[in-house]
User: Which sequence fits this backbone?
């Protein structure tokens, strides 16, 4: 038996938690439980980011997402947790329709993911050969289809931890230090980094701050026709 | 099953996790009648996309180095996280406003603009 690959083991652990609790969010009808499941799912996603070598993004996922956004959501749940709204049931017809749409989306995405993962493990020439489009109207000989071309897979890249925080910080102020020695002309594009998106997102956050404060400001509660009906 | 444990993790593993999270989020957005449930679906969708960005940005998931997008994936994932935080803040403000005005958070009751 081959030795256990611990990277894979931890990946499977975190991936299982993330997917299981994401499904829990879908199938639970209690909004408080949904919020709790979402927190677990997103925290496990942070673990996946760490395993993919994205240490800074994983940390930001924990700090901003789990610590900020989801706490905001939990506050929203608490502020609106009147007993009729804690669990609002979905009708059976909606479930059937959603299962159809979700199932067909999954049926498209999973084979695509497998195909891309396989192609990403081949050398470029073989990957190009497998995707070269057949000329329209060309009839495949039956004998051709029978033999499966065996393509050589590249050897696995060793998993190693390389800190990314410095490079990300430099990229945000406009220097791509990780690309300075890049020889591939196509990959040298975007050497200027991310100053412009960074500035745009700063203004965006300011606008969001003002907008959210304006929308959520305290006001006298209006008498509602729904409250009368209920 | 045992080979699953001894094989190295590849790009497709991550893409499948991203696909499952994305589909869960989309179904959640479509079926929940609680406005906060719809918001949670959006968060799941954004995270599914983020998993894909980080997977393509990783140095060792794809064996062919031409498949990696390197640091770009990390930076885009960071922008997605920030945008999700901003979106959640505004959407929550809108939901609270709706709750104050209508005393409900059932999105099916938000039909005043229906023709």
Assistant:
């Amino acid at each position: 038996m081959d030795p256990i690959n611990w990277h894979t083991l931890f990946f499977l652990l975190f991936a299982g938690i993330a997917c299981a609790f994401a499904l829990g969010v879908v199938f639970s009808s209690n909004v408080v439980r949904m919020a709790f499941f979402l927190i677990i799912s997103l925290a496990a996603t942070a673990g996946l980011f760490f395993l993919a070598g994205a240490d800074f993004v994983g940390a930001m996922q924990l700090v901003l997402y789990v610590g900020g956004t989801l706490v905001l959501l939990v506050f929203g749940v608490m502020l609106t947790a009147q007993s009729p709204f804690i669990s609002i049931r979905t009708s059976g017809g909606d479930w059937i329709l959603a299962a159809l749409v979700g199932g067909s989306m999954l049926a498209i995405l999973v084979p695509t993911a497998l195909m891309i993962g396989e192609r990403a493990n081949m050398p470029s020439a073989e990957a190009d050969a497998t995707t070269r489009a057949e000329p329209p109207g060309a009839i495949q000989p039956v004998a051709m289809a029978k033999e499966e071309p065996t393509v050589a897979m590249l050897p696995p890249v060793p998993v190693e931890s390389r800190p990314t925080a410095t490079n990300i910080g430099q990229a945000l102020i406009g220097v791509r230090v990780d690309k300075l020695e890049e020889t591939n002309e196509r990959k040298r594009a975007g050497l200027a980094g991310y100053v412009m998106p960074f500035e745009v997102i700063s203004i965006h956050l300011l606008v969001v701050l003002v907008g959210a404060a304006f929308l959520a400001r305290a006001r006298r509660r209006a008498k509602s026709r729904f409250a009368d009906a209920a | 099953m045992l080979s699953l444990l001894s094989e190295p993790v590849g790009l497709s593993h991550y893409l499948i996790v991203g696909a499952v999270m994305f589909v869960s989020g989309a179904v959640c957005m479509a079926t929940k009648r609680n406005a906060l449930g719809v918001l949670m679906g959006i968060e799941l969708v954004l995270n599914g996309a983020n998993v894909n960005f980080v997977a393509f940005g990783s140095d060792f998931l794809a064996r062919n180095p031409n498949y990696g997008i390197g640091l770009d994936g990390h930076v885009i994932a960071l922008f997605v996280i920030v945008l999700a935080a901003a979106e959640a803040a505004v959407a929550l403000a809108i939901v609270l406003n709706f709750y104050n005005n209508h005393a409900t958070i059932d999105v099916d009751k938000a039909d005043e603009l229906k023709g």
In short: The radius of gyration of chain B is 19 Å. Chain B is about 70% helix and 0% strand.
